[in-house]
Amino acid sequence: MYWTPPAYSDFQSFFARDFYFAQATDPNNLDFVTAGDVNRAIGEALIHFNTALYGTDAQVTNVFMYLVAFCLVRNIQLSSKGLSSQSKFPISSTSVGGVSVNYSIPEQYSKDPFLSSLTVNGYGMRFLEITVPLLYGNIFVISGGPQQ
């Protein structure tokens, strides 16, 4: 199987209800998601993506789209802060007055720098929901055959 990563137009179709995309006649309008934003996110998502975990090309593409969306949201959040951008770990608890909220971050995520970074937005969490169950019990042959 040779999988081809989706293009900007594929991403735009897949997430038609999620993002406001710049018009083709105004591709540099930074009030909207541009083709450049999506292409950058596609390139970054490819760094972390393993096509071997998923089934058909269509399934690979669907899962990949969530990782691209995660990267896109993170990039836009960072770019809006520019030089003032800061990094924070996910909040595990907070309180105001007599009200407190606690989030339990599963250990399998909190101990892994990449997985924990995915927990900061909904697209990363959706990617994790689909991917994490596939990480257990998979066996891959690296080279050769059975030993005698």
Description:
By secondary structure, the chain is mostly helical. Helices cover 45% and strands 5% of the residues. It has helices at 8-14, 35-48, 57-81, 107-110, 113-118, 122-131, and strands spanning 93-96, 99-102. A two-stranded antiparallel ribbon has the order 1-2. It is flat. The chain starts with 7 loop residues before the first helix and ends in a 17-residue tail after the last helix.
The tally of strands reads: 2
Strand content: 5-15%
The radius of gyration over CA amounts to 18 Å
What is the spatial order of strands in the main beta sheet?
Answer: 1-2
Q: Low-confidence runs (pLDDT<50, min 5 residues)?
A: none
Chain-averaged pLDDT: 84
**Tally the helices: what do you get?**
6
Span between termini: 30 Å
The major β-sheet equals: 2 strands, antiparallel
Principal-axis shape equals: flat
Helix content: 40-55%
Order of helices and strands: HHHEEHHH
Multimerization status: single chain
Computed structural class:
mainly alpha
Give a nutshell description of this structure.
By secondary structure, the chain is mostly helical.
